Amino acid sequence: MKSWNNKAWFLVLPVLLLVAFSAIIPLMTVVNYSVQDSFGSNEFYWVGLEWFQEVLSSERFHNALMRNLLFSAIILLIEIPLGIAVALAMPRRGWGVSVCLVLMALPLLIPWNVVGTIWQVFARVDIGLLGYSLTQLGFDYNYTQDTLDAWITLIVMDVWHWTSLVVLLSYSGLVSIPPAYYQAARIDGASRWAVFRYIQLPKMRRVLVIAVLLRFMDSFMIYTEPFVVTGGGPGNATTFLSIDLVQMAIGQFDLGPAAAMSLIYFLIILLVSWVFYTVMTQQDADAESGRGHS
Amino acid sequence: MIRRAWIPVLYIVFLMLPLYWLLMMSFKTNQEILSTFSLWPREFTLQNYITILSDSSWYSGYINSMIYVVMNTVISLSVALPAAYAFSRYRFLGDKHLFFWLLTNRMAPPAVFVLPFFQLYSAFGLIDTHIAVALAHCLFNVPLAVWILEGFMSSVPREIDETAYIDGYSFPRFFTKIFTPLIAPGIGVAAFFCFMFSWVELLIARTLTVTDAKPISAIMTRTVSASGLDWGVLAAAGMLTVIPGALVIYFVRNHIAKGFALGRV
Hints:
The complex is a heterodimer of chains A (about 290) and B (about 260). Chain A is mostly helical and about 290 residues long.
């Protein structure tokens, strides 16, 4: 049992001060902008919730939000099962482990705009391996003009970029399972599926919570990669919330609506993450207490 | 086991293909890239790399990136260590709320913070310094480091602390001499993640820098638009940004799998 000690606050204080500087002050600035309008340089006046109403009722925001939700949903549906499958099939010991880990982690450490550049080049019809091969095979592929092609390119790119994170997390969950569990399963004559369902999946739950949360947050906040690859196009087909937001804040300098949109955007992420977190840790707690009773 | 080995192999091939293409492009001349389609450079050239490594406006980008990434990793870890210890060992007023609130910072879209960051750091005269980017990146790295370290620390039995205090260790001495070595793999994993997220971030780093602290990834985008797409140099620059990451993974590769498993991550 943890002991109750309010002096522990002193240990947390440095983090608190640092995060206050890098998060609370900027966030307050955003809140400040979101309720004011400006004429010219430095004259601000109070507009209340007008910007929020404007953003929430605008077609542009709805469309970007829908695109973001669709993108995140597709990403989670592909990356989580794929990551688990790869982790299950990875070797458990020997030189293969190091080779797999190093090669798989590689895409995670490439700067995001370089990832964008790599795929921009790789998928180009004239000089890219992927685009050229697809065209030679007779596909009418062009990610700069066709909406579907642009989406597929972005999704494949994100799978390429981030599935390894799910693999690494799942793998670490798998190697923590004591061999005795598998021996017991073998004695009971458990099928491959039963081993997965009743031993491996429950043991991976903790890391999967993290994987789902991280993948949701990051795919929902995606900015650099689509910006480099498609620039939000063709048309507005891949203009996600963050691209729209940066365009609004820095391109058009519409501070009020941009700030209001930032806050709404942040709240959506917060809400969805909180739901994921609660649901998945709740199951965890149920599983724990169930074990306690039996 | 053998039958299932094709899944990771296929996956790795998928991961390597775009990188292979980038590597090959970096050895080609611009003319060859644009005129012919070849899987292998016909005229092997190192000119693209020489261009980058001999021009300080190019290679200073790497140095800038490395400086702020290392600064950020050091800052993040040094504030996260005591905080993670507090979360793993004690209950205190508002601890659970504080922990979740820290995580919410990891969820904040960087796009939201671009403008306020710019104004905040302008007010302090920190624009275009390495420390500005390092501090800004703490926004998402500190919560992550606290989260990871807390998991590792919780796996160390509490009796060790108590025994050390009975033996007369003061808190700082116990923390540095006994506790830190025990969670070394955790620190390694946390450092890996701080390095990774700071190294790959572009939007904030680009906004807060002008010339003196500009990261390599931002220099790349500028050159692309200015010089009419020099694909060979672009590919070489991209390839060079992959190397630091590859080195870091190589060093922590044994800790990653073990580390994740130990920690609550």
